[in-house]
Amino acid sequence: MEIFSRLHLLLLLFSLGIVASSATVFTLENRCSYTIWPGTLCGNGIATLGDGGFELAPGASVQFPVPQTWSGRIWGRTGCNFDASGTGTCATGDCGGVLKCTGGGAPPVSLVEFTIAKSASDKDFYDVSLVDGYNVGLGVKAVGGTGDCQYAGCVADLNGKCPAELQVTESGTVVACKSACAAFNTPQFCCTADHSTPETCSPTQYSQLFKNACPSAYSYAYDDASSTCTCSGSDYLITFCPTS
C-alpha cells in the first residue's frame, strides 16, 4: 500500500476538483506488535477508504483523503489469512471472508465511527464504540482542528480483563470480548423491547466494566453523553493499540 504524504494527498484532491483547504485526512497507524487488517465501511455511499480493507504491518501507517459529509466506520481485523485473490478468514472482525470489505465486521469488534461535516467550520462527529464488543485497542486523536476535539479511544487491553462468559478464544488465547447483548441476547443487555429507551436501558455490570477500562468509549447503546466527540476542520490520527 502506497504511503501518501499530506502534500500528495492535497494535490490529489485538487486534481479531482476537491478544494484542498477543506480536505480531511485520516492517518491509520498500527502500534500493535502484530499485523492488523483494517476494514472500512462507508455509510452514505460517498467513498470507500482503502478499497474496504487492506493489510497494515506493525509500525506501518497509511493516509486517506476523506470527502466532506463522509460517514462510516473503521475497525481492525486480527488473525487473518488471505490468498492471492483476497479470499480468506480472520479470527476477529471478519467481513464475509474477503480482504476488501463490502459489509461490516463480525462482532465482537472495536469500532471507530465518523461523520465528517460539510464544511471546515461545521462540527465533525466521531467516537470509539465497544457496543459490539472488543477485539483490539483503538484511539482517535484530532489534529489541527478547533472546538472540543476530545481524544476518543480504548487504550486498555480488555481481552485480558474479559469475564469468562464473554470471552472468544482461539487456541486457548482470548482474542476478543463479546458484548453482553451478544452473549445473552436479552432486552436488558440489548436495549430492546421494554428496555428500548435511555430511561429504561441503564448500564449493566458488563458495560460498566468496559466503561471503567475505557472511559471515553461507548460502552452500551445509550452511552452518548461521555462518548460522542466533536471537532471542526481537523485531520484525524486513528491508532490501533494506542498507548497512554
TrEMBL record:
Task: Name the domain of life.
Answer: Eukaryota
Q: What is this protein called?
A: Pathogenesis-related thaumatin family protein
Q: Which organism is it from?
A: Melia azedarach (Chinaberry tree)
